[in-house]
Design a protein that fits this description.
Layout (H helix, E strand, L loop, with lengths): L1 H28 L3 H60 L3 E12 L4 E6 L9 E4 L4 E9 L2 E6 L6 E6 L2 E10 L5 E4 L12 E4 L11 E11 L2 E9 L8 E7 L1
Antiparallel strand pairs: 1-2, 1-12, 2-5, 3-4, 3-12, 4-5, 6-7, 6-9, 7-8, 8-11, 9-10, 10-11
Length: 249
């Protein structure tokens, strides 16, 4: 079915080449305005053809670049997920108390979260962790089967933390009045990289060590002060989702 069409296209291409050749010969032989017009038209045609070919090549190069960027992003996501899973598996091996719960509501401007738990009441300060192993906050108060949770994005929340790839340096993770997280009080020699993971360091001896908290989204450096990092919390929307309240025994 496609053979006649292929022959027609081949014939049309041959005809176009013949016509161009005749026009080029005519432009070379004839003189005067006709010569000028033909030469200008043919020159413009070949120039346009060259530009079209360059545009096509540029488009192909851009397509290849986009594919390479996408593959690199996929690799980074896979690496991040593996690191988080390793952290979570490490924490679950420790001797800790666990109470299942659900986050069910928020509370006013202070953005305290309300959790309903089952089983033993967790102690004040116990970690509240998402099902994926991300730190949400700490137990602020307990009444009956209801717990108020102070989230890591709550105003003036403070916690001992560290960079996963540089575990020998403890730092302070703190939220400002607007809920933005920062990692500060690091030694000046520490090199902070974007997308680096931040985990709990258990310096306060309550929250388990190694809980994933945030990733670095920006770095602030100043020769007069120690380096600081702006952080992106790892937990997102966890309303009505299972959570765990954990603490060291």
């Amino acid at each position: 079915m496609f053979q006649p069409i292929k022959k027609q296209i081949t014939a049309l291409a041959s005809l176009i080449i013949v016509v161009i050749a005749i026009l080029w010969w005519t432009a070379a032989v004839w003189q005067g305005p006709v010569n000028y017009w033909l030469m200008s038209a043919l020159t413009g045609f070949f120039k346009w053809q060259g530009q079209a070919a360059q545009i096509l090549q540029d488009g192909q190069n851009i397509s290849v670049s986009i594919q390479e960027i996408a593959l690199e992003q996929d690799k980074k996501i896979i690496d991040m997920e593996k690191k988080l899973l390793d952290l979570w598996n490490k924490v679950k091996k420790e001797k800790i108390g666990v109470t299942p719960a659900y986050l069910v509501a928020g509370r006013g401007a202070d953005i305290y979260n309300v959790a309903i738990f089952e089983g033993d009441a967790p102690p004040l300060g116990a970690a509240v962790v998402s099902a994926d192993g991300f730190l949400i906050g700490r137990v602020f108060s307990v009444s009956g089967s209801i717990v108020l949770v102070w989230p890591i994005t709550g105003a003036n929340f403070k916690l001992s933390a560290r960079l996963v790839d540089q575990p020998n340096f403890n730092a302070v993770l703190q939220a400002d009045m607007s809920g933005l997280l920062r990692l500060s009080q690091l030694p000046r020699e520490v090199a902070i990289k974007e997308n680096a993971l931040v985990e709990t360091s258990a310096f306060d001896n309550i929250i388990p060590e190694g809980l994933a908290v945030a990733s670095v989204k920006g770095v602030f450096t100043d020769v007069a002060v120690a380096p600081e990092a702006a952080l992106l919390p790892l937990f997102l929307s966890v309303w009505s989702q299972p959570v765990l309240m954990e603490w060291k025994r």
